[in-house]
């Protein structure tokens, strides 16, 4: 039996020894047996994160309304005095006071394998988690595991972008499916995108598709390079601006149908995954003043085109189906969608 599974059983056996079928906050935090089981489980789970889907049934930790965390309870969980004060402050910031789900939220994050410092950082970044039921948190973590975020990756995603646990399952699954079906990423590539750029789950799907199509058709970049360059961490405006600036200076060229260019284009990661200073010095070979002027001109041009595009979209949409080619249907569908929205 794995260490993490053992820790889970320790906690479950400890909780089952309680006589009350519905545990309230006082029972959970002030019972010596329960507190000892909780600390044992957290210690065991935090030392081994290789097991897939080993977690406590948080439905056993239902709280009665009105019960609140205390400094002593947080100290017993392993927080320092300062951390306990900060956590209570974060817990009472929103929605008029502390949530009845605060304890089950803490339990879910501890069982995930986060230590007190990491738990505090997560909840300071996203205090909305205090108001999510423990059972919902467990379901959302399970769903991320099913999408391929195993132990280690899941902890990093939650630590970096805890807002992902506030979203319904349907939203996260819709984005994962969208990346696979509309953008032709493999299952593993879609998982890597969510792992490296978790904020993508809240992006507008239309903008997400256009960003992909811009990189694919306009820049000639394939899916594997998009994943390596972490394309979806960067805004669409930044992608277009950096690319257009290079193109205007003769430093980037759209590949022809055979994927060939007359110059050697820089890698996408060298364009996007660097600071603006390094981009200008090493790739664009331009001054910051030149780039700022270009950004202002492009922003004005794109705004004018956006205003006119809304009128054109409705008129063109009725003719699309009759003009589709049967050959290379999947890629042509993406290309036609890109051409409808392309900034001419």
Automatic annotation (TrEMBL):
Gene3D superfamilies: Transcription termination factor 3, mitochondrial (1.25.70.10). Residues 303-333 have a biased composition (Acidic residues). This is Mitochondrial transcription termination factor 4. Transmembrane segments: none annotated. Pfam families: mTERF (PF02536). Residues 303-344 are annotated as: Disordered. The lineage of its organism: Eukaryota, Metazoa, Chordata, Craniata, Vertebrata. The keyword Repeat does not apply. The keyword Transit peptide applies. Keywords: Transit peptide. Belongs to the mTERF family. InterPro entries: MTERF, MTERF_sf. One of its GO terms (molecular function) is nucleic acid binding.
């Amino acid at each position: 039996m794995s260490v993490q599974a053992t820790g889970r059983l320790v906690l479950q056996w400890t909780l089952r020894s309680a006589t009350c079928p519905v545990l309230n906050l006082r029972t959970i935090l002030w019972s010596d047996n329960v507190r000892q089981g909780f600390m044992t489980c957290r210690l065991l789970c935090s030392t081994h994160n290789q097991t897939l889907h080993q977690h406590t049934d948080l439905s056993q930790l239902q709280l009665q309304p009105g019960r609140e965390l205390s400094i002593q309870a947080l100290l017993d969980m392993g927080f320092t005095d300062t951390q306990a004060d900060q956590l209570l402050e974060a817990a009472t910031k929103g929605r008029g006071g502390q949530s009845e789900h605060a304890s089950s939220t803490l339990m879910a994050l501890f069982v995930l394998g986060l230590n007190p410092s990491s738990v505090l950082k997560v909840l300071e970044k996203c205090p909305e988690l205090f108001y999510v039921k423990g059972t919902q948190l467990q379901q959302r973590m399970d769903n991320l595991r099913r999408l391929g975020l195993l132990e280690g990756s899941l902890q990093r995603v939650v630590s970096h972008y805890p807002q992902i646990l506030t979203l319904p399952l349907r939203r996260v699954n819709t984005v994962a499916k969208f990346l696979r079906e509309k953008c032709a990423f493999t299952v593993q590539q879609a998982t890597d995108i969510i792992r490296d750029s978790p904020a993508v789950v809240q992006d507008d799907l239309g903008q997400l598709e256009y960003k992909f199509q811009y990189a694919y058709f306009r820049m000639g970049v394939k899916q594997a390079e998009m994943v390596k360059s972490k394309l979806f961490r960067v805004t669409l405006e930044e992608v277009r601006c950096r690319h257009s600036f290079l193109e205007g200076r003769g430093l980037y060229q759209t590949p022809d149908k055979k994927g060939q260019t007359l110059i050697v284009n820089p890698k996408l990661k060298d364009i996007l995954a660097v600071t603006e200073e390094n981009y200008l010095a090493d790739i664009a070979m331009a001054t910051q003043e030149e780039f700022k002027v270009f950004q202002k001109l492009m922003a004005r041009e794109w705004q004018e085109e956006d205003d006119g595009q809304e009128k054109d979209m409705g008129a063109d949409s009725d003719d699309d189906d009759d003009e589709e080619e049967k050959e290379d249907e999947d890629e042509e569908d993406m290309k036609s969608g890109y051409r409808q929205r392309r900034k001419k």
